[in-house]
UniProtKB/TrEMBL annotation:
A Pfam family it matches: DinB
Protein name: Putative damage-inducible protein DinB
Keyword Metal-binding included in the entry's annotation: yes
Organism: Edaphobacter modestus
Key words, A-Z: Metal-binding
Lineage: Bacteria, Pseudomonadati, Acidobacteriota, Terriglobia, Terriglobales
Length: 168
């Protein structure tokens, strides 16, 4: 049986599309950064976004074998600073995907919440990509509760889908 496979590049593109939509909304409404937030033990939306991009960057650095950026050194004082970190992480992921990365190789690293883990680079990549997607979905609910409307669908279904012509 030939099963369809979601590739790492497709998953990364979903993350990138989602991030770009949030970047656009936040650039138009930077006041959203100051909204109170209790997702992932944060106090503001800016801190949640720091968490999202810090995970992206630190896990990308782990994959490519670079020293991890200290969490406290990931800026979140502006939309531009937050997404500069995201862009840097995406460069590392693309570099890893375009090279002969040993995806099955186990790497050991210290997490902030559960101690030392040992897992494959592939698992680290997919965790980082879907971690951001999950938190962006939570953020969508939060900003709607504060009166902001998103103008995109975050579901993977809309990655390349178009409306079918009306039958009639």
């Amino acid at each position: 049986m030939n099963e369809p496979m979601l590739t790492a590049t497709e998953a990364l593109n979903w993350n990138q599309t989602t991030s770009a939509s949030w970047r656009k909304l936040l650039a138009a409404h930077p006041e959203i950064l100051a909204l109170p937030c209790d997702i992932a033990r944060t106090a503001t939306v800016a801190q949640l976004l720091q968490h999202i991009v810090a995970v992206e960057l630190r896990y990308a650095e782990r994959i490519v074998g670079l020293p991890e950026t200290d969490y406290a050194n990931v800026p979140y004082d502006s939309v531009e600073a937050i997404y500069a970190t995201h862009d840097r992480a995406m460069e590392f992921y693309r570099q890893a995907l375009d090279s002969e990365t040993a995806w099955a190789e186990q790497i050991e690293f210290q997490t902030r919440s559960v101690g030392v883990l040992l897992t494959s680079r592939k698992t680290v990549l997919f965790h980082a990509v879907f971690h951001g997607i999950r938190h962006y979905a939570q953020l969508g609910t939060l900003v709607r509760q504060h009166g902001y409307k998103t103008d995109w669908y975050g579901d993977y279904l809309f990655m390349g889908a178009t409306r079918a012509p009306s039958a009639g």
